[in-house]
Amino acid sequence: MEDDTKASYDLEERLLNFGARIINLTRALGADYAARHIGNQLLRSGTAPLSHHGEAQAAESPADFIHKLRLALKELRESERWLKLILRSNILPDQKLSAILDETDQLIRIFVSSISTAEKRRK
Q: How remote is the C-alpha of 42 from its chain's centroid?
């Protein structure tokens, strides 16, 4: 149980898991033109937060750190919109999307909070 608790708060692990879930989800979308288009967009935006988080950890300044976190947040928000479009257009059923939409929302909240904290510390 202790490892599960630690993993749920390890942001890098969560972003790795999120990216893997996005990859698997895009594979399940299908091969028609719309599904491929949405899948390509979601694949790009859903895997980018992991790399932006890694870049933030190696930031050259507090401003650079905040900038990298904002990029990750931007990609998460974009991913959330693509996921909602998949849901709205009935490409996949709600039961396949509810958990990843919830995780997307949680990650967005974490990044908003982290950016706010970093900005306060910078001042």
A: 10
